[in-house]
Amino acid sequence: MKHSEYRIEGGGYTAVVLGLGAAVRELTHEGRPLVVGFGADEDMPNFRGAFVAPWPNRIADGQYSFDGADFELPINEPERGTALHGLVFDIPWSLVEHTESAVTLGCTIEPTDAYPFTVALHARFSVDGAGFRTDVTALNTGSRRAPYGVCPHPYLVAGPSPLDEWVLDLPAATVLTVTPDRLLPVAKEPVAGTPFDFRTAHALGDVQIDHAFTDLKRGDAGLATVRVTDPASGTGTAMVWDDTCPWAQIHTADLPLKPENTRLGLAVEPMTCPPDAFNTGEDLIVLAPGGTHRTGWTISAL
Fold first, then answer.
1. Which Pfam families match (predicted)?
2. What does the chain look like in DSSP terms, one character per residue?
3. Per-residue pLDDT tens for 72-128?
């Protein structure tokens, strides 16, 4: 199904952002794909390039409590019984501004019985020589406190070689273990001695990852950087963000029900909070009436 879309170009980068869900359908540098995209006439497969808010990842059973009241969200991942990836990935966003190198889209999450809060979102997508940048602002325009979290959902592409041959540099000391059947949080554990330790970059091999990581090592500017490279082609893709996102979901895209889409790219999702934060409260943002939260991330070619 074809949706309105906005192309931006600059610094060798080209991106296409959809009006539906503010999804990033395409991102290239000098013609090389940096993410797994999808066609103009396709519906978004496997949340490729999705904009995820007001919670990242999963909420167990779609149920949560906030400020003394209980709420129940629609289950959109029935095989695991969870509410997955928020409320805005499949709704129209309005165009705020479009230039050659930037586009800003907006939408408002209106109150429902499941999420009785009003949150206005603005996402500015821009390209220049430093890469493809997303800047996100959330504003609570309602009269009650609102729980909130956000993340992107790109599947990064290092190069033409198979994902197993790509080298991952993930500077995270802690992994959130999950239940094997529902991928719900169990405990935070050190990555040392596990298959999830990529603090020293090495090939992904056949490891299967669908986990959140934290305790990210950051550079002098407070930035965390995840890199995935293809040694055969000498190319790669990096993603950089600041401490407004203390978590990163990494997913090797193992999709047994969709083998044709399996392991085509590596999902790297900077998150403001971990999975099921509406229940655990960990790193959950609470927007006071009139309150604002800002975050962002950059994808660049290596």
1. Aldose_epim
2. ----EEEEEETTEEEEEESBTT-EEEEEETTEESB----TTSPPPTTTTEEEBSS-SEEETTEEEETTEEEE---SBTTTTEEESBSSTTSB-EEEEE-SSEEEEEEEE---SSS---EEEEEEEEEETTEEEEEEEEEE-SSS-EEE--EEE-EE---SS-GGG-EEE--EEEEEEE-TTT--EEEEEE-TTSTT--SS-EE-TT---EEEEEEE---TTS-EEEEEEETTTTEEEEEEE-TT--EEEEE----TT-GGGTTSSEEEEEESS-TTHHHH-TT-EEEPTT-EEEEEEEEEE-
3. 999 999 999 999 999 999 999 999 999 999 999 999 999 999 999 999 999 999 999
Q: Please state which CATH number belongs to domain 5-301.
A: 2.70.98.10
CB 176 within 8 A of CB 213: yes
Tokens representing 151?
């993340």
Q: State the Cα–Cα distance between residues 20 and 107, nearest whole angstrom.
A: 10
What Rg do the C-alpha atoms of the chain give, in angstroms? 18
Note whether 71 and 114 are within 8 A (CB).
Answer: yes
Domain residue limits, the chain: 5-301
User: Tokens 């995935």 — which residue?
Assistant: 228
Give the alpha-carbon dihedral of 11, 16, 17, 23, to 10 degrees: -110
Residues 6+ apart with CB under 8 A from 80: 58, 181, 182, 183, 184
For 44-54, what is each residue's pLDDT tens digit?
999 999 999 99
Q: Which residues pair with 122 in a beta bridge?
A: 106, 137
The pTM score is 0.97
